[in-house]
């Protein structure tokens, strides 16, 4: 086994401003707080720096170390969660997006995945770069689709563990394929391989201390068109027997949905349900073709949805009913869907989720107004694709605060991360990123990257308006530190000055 890099563990002691989105639409700003972790990476103190206990901690630590103090203009925010990313497709990210889904899979996805399965050195290079890029973009937890070959997926698991990222790695299960050289020999062979991968993936981290075990296996039937009923049935049983996570694609695109209807005489969701693959441990990507009533049924199973707005714009004939899913109680997080989406940063996914939802809201308003006027034909064209459920008075759009929740706390809940991740509280693992909004560069101008402020900072310090500005304009230049389970994993320099 390849020797792992070692690192020393230290308690984290940080002083500064902290931001979180604990519930949908709510933003908390904690001004000048002190946070400390224990040597396992869990927060054991979080209070105002002026609180007597905080003062005592700082006084107690003064002979050994001082708290790292983040300057005004920077803050700490929970890391992002990416609920849907095809690791081998990072190889050709940003190409081939002109094709419909089923054709794109044949001409790009399957070929790239098969190529990595045949070249371990290439796989190692791709996955190490992928891990570094995720950290650079503030992603602390990710749900990954891999390839068919067990050894290639173990390379992926090692790359994520070594980088310090929470990663859920899925070896693809597929016994049907339009590419004859890229499939498993039989349902039985696929099930044996899935079970073997799960066992070996657990063994990969078995020698690591429990709090540092960041990688887990995930059962991954690619989607209904590549999986026989026998394979799906076996995976459902295996998931139940070993309490394993499950991921797949469901009701993603028009051509895919039509294929399932023609070949299986059923809907995607019914096929997964019949084989016990919709569980509280399941994340299904996309779900753009689920109706509001189907989303309500999905909520009862506890299944989460990975919302990938950019990928949906390319490969689905309709957008995901995000507002309806949230109202129904479906756990929802965001996914980049590399390479069906070309942007690996969750910042882009947040912005796109808001844009898509606002376009849906525009369609709802136009359809409702046309319906009230009793208009037909041309007057109703703008709302012709809006269902009757969408003619109600409830808005369909989301705002930036709700998107930030989906990217952090909501994603952590949907992914089943340790309780509390996405927030700052005692007993919660410390997963965070440092965001620098501005520094004094010139008289009257304060900026970092594309985020620029011309006015003096407000007396109260960090505000929601300032966070929104970063949300709209920020990029990797604003990120100056990333921690997962209390370990500082980014290579970026830390911008710290005394207050």
From TrEMBL:
Gene3D superfamilies, sorted: Metal-dependent hydrolases (3.20.20.140), Urease, subunit C, domain 1 (2.30.40.10)
PANTHER family per UniProt: GUANINE DEAMINASE (PTHR11271:SF6)
BP GO annotations: guanine metabolic process
Annotated region described as Disordered, given as residue ranges: 365-391
A GO-annotated cellular component: cytosol
Organism: Dichomitus squalens
Domain Amidohydrolase-related residue range list: 76-467
Compositional bias annotation for Basic and acidic residues: 365-386
Names of the cofactor(s): Zn(2+)
Protein name as it appears in the record: Metallo-dependent hydrolase
